[in-house]
TrEMBL record:
It comes from Chlorobium ferrooxidans DSM 13031. Belongs to the ALAD family. The active site is at residues 200, 253. The lineage of its organism: Bacteria, Pseudomonadati, Chlorobiota, Chlorobiia, Chlorobiales. It catalyses: 2 5-aminolevulinate = porphobilinogen + 2 H2O + H(+). One of its GO terms (molecular function) is zinc ion binding. Homooctamer. This is Delta-aminolevulinic acid dehydratase. PROSITE patterns: D_ALA_DEHYDRATASE (PS00169). Its EC number is 4.2.1.24. CDD domains: ALAD_PBGS_aspartate_rich. Keywords: Heme biosynthesis, Lyase, Magnesium, Metal-binding, Porphyrin biosynthesis. It is an enzyme of class 4 (lyase).
Length: 328
């Protein structure tokens, strides 16, 4: 047998992959617990911890239980939650969204009393608060823009009153960031930040979330306000507008299928970029893992790391707790 001729090559990239120590030394991006934001669903009642059928391992919590959950998150090193509320009642005018004694407002007060240093962001949108399941007010089947923005401003102020650190408008109405910024400032809340869901796509990956929040649209879809998955220039325009209107952090949503948008945003703008690893992405991993088809922990950590690599500074994920445990 003839001896193998060695290749005459100078560059052997595999030298940098030879051992775990070397691989770790040259790793470019890493995920840390500081990057994680946990979306928390709060529902009426007491002593309620109810698993979301389409999101195994994710729960709706009554406020008393949500407080306990927040303490646990904090102990795991998770420093931020995004609060979503399921109201006692849905009304066509969405007025429960700015009730000073509403679900998000009461949850804010209760959590702040027990876990004061936890950063609390609040979802600002109407979908759980009207019977229509749309992010805005509805008239004759049309999702109204300016009328909705007026309600969102009230909602944002009521969240600030109750102790929110950041408000996160997720509705995609035009001009709402500027209007909310002005309303907060006028009400004396110039130090409350805005995380804008700036490039939110009309995605089918949100299905399980609507199950969690009982907020599925009752007619039509969200394509007249959320973005077309085929577009990227439009995302740059949306993000630029929101930054000009006063957004402190901008979000791209969903996550994995939209990392090109994250990358482009990071290349172009000098603001922190958030990514939402959405419910459908979470549930797909859960379902495949349940069948033994993939390794859940590895797929979860790889997904989150890839979001970081693409330019995500904050990652909203239902896997925050599990990831935090592995990162310790
Ligand atoms: N405004 C928040 C969402 O729409 C969340 C979507 C998801 O997790 O699927
Ligand atoms: Mg916009």
């Amino acid at each position: 047998m003839s001896q193998l001729d060695l290749l005459n090559i100078v560059h052997r990239p595999r030298r940098l992959r030879k051992s775990a120590a070397i691989r770790n030394l040259v790793q470019e991006k890493s995920l840390t617990v500081n990057d994680l934001v946990y979306p928390l669903f709060v529902c009426p009642g007491t002593n309620v911890v109810e698993e979301v059928a389409s999101m195994p391992g994710s729960f709706r919590y009554s406020i008393d239980k949500a407080v306990k959950e927040c303490q646990e998150l904090w102990d795991l090193g998770i420093q931020c939650i995004d609060l979503f509320g399921i109201p006692e009642q849905k009304t066509e005018d969405g007025s429960e969204s700015y009730n000073e004694k509403g679900i998000i407002q009461e949850a804010l007060r209760a959590i702040k009393a027990k876990v004061p240093d936890l950063c609390i962001m609040t979802d600002v949108a109407l979908d759980p608060f009207t019977p229509f399941g749309h992010d805005g007010l509805v008239r004759d089947g049309i999702i109204l823009n300016d009328e909705t923005v007026e309600v969102l401003c009230k909602m944002a102020i009521s969240h600030a009153n109750a102790g929110a650190d950041f408000v996160s408008p997720s509705d995609m109405m035009d001009g709402r960031i500027g209007a909310i910024r002005e309303s907060l400032d006028d009400a004396g809340f110039s130090d409350i930040g805005i995380l804008s869901y700036a490039a939110k796509y009309a995605s089918s990956f949100y299905g399980p979330f609507r199950d969690a929040l009982h907020s599925a649209p009752q007619f039509g879809d969200k394509t007249t306000y959320q973005m077309n998955p085929g577009n990227t220039d439009e995302a740059m325009k949306e993000i630029e507008l929101d930054i000009m209107e006063g957004a402190d952090i901008v979000m791209v949503k969903p996550g994995l299928a939209y990392l090109d948008i994250v990358w482009r945003t990071k290349e172009r703008f000098d603001v922190p970029v958030a990514i939402y690893h959405v419910s459908g992405e979470y549930s797909m991993v859960k379902a495949a893992a349940d069948r033994g088809w993939i390794d859940e922990k590895r797929v979860m950590m790889e997904s989150l790391l890839c979001m970081k690599r693409a330019g995500g500074d904050l990652i909203f994920t239902y896997y925050a707790k599990e990831a935090a445990k592995l990162l310790r």
